[in-house]
Design brief:
With 183 residues, the chain is mainly α. It contains eleven helices and no strands. The mean pLDDT is 82.
């Protein structure tokens, strides 16, 4: 008895097996739907899709996300990509290490991470590391100190929003009053 996977493989490889054998074989397994719906399902490639490589943006999103927060099919696809390419394995490991340094405020581990990255053959990360080294004191302070300018940035964002809302319609005096009333 054919399964959906074997029917999908037969569908792609042998045009003669498309209509008569697959729907009847799947119907024998207990499929209650119509043959037309099954044929459309198989034509769309849903039964066993070929892996389409993710876009660079999506791959970066997957690499910078926690693996447990990804849907299972994305996690499996990412694991397959990582295991199939040794540089990708190293890149994923370095990105996750940096994320741990960043989220757990372990600035004291930054120099060891930088040395490990420079030992790897990852030119894009080398450029990132050189940017970190240019302003080493600020980076270390950001990774170790509990202080944040988040509240200040929030107020600035709110002021810009109010300014955009009154752009071209009101004077500076009205903008000033709206800012003072919203705080």
């Amino acid at each position: 008895m054919p399964t959906a996977t074997t029917c999908a493989a037969a569908w792609r490889s042998d045009p003669t097996s498309r209509s008569p054998t697959c729907p009847s074989g799947i119907r024998a397994l207990g499929y209650p739907g119509s043959a037309n719906l099954l044929v459309r399902y198989l034509k769309q490639g849903r039964a066993e899709p070929d892996r389409v490589p993710p876009s660079p943006r999506r791959l970066v999103t997957w690499l910078t996300s926690k693996p447990e927060n990804l849907p299972a099919h994305h996690r499996r696809h990412l694991d397959e990509l990582i295991t199939s390419c040794p540089p990708m394995t190293t890149l994923a490991q370095r990105v996750r290490e940096f994320a741990a340094i960043l989220t757990r405020r372990r600035g004291h581990d930054l120099h060891a991470w930088i040395d490990a990255v420079l030992a790897d053959d990852l030119p894009a990360l080398h450029r990132f590391v050189h940017g970190l080294r240019k302003d080493n004191e600020a980076v270390l302070a950001g990774l170790t100190l509990p202080h944040s300018n988040g509240p200040t940035e929030g107020v600035v964002n709110k002021i810009k929003l109010l300014k955009r809302q009154t752009y071209g319609r009101a004077s500076f005096a009205l903008l000033r009053k709206r800012i003072l009333l919203n705080q």
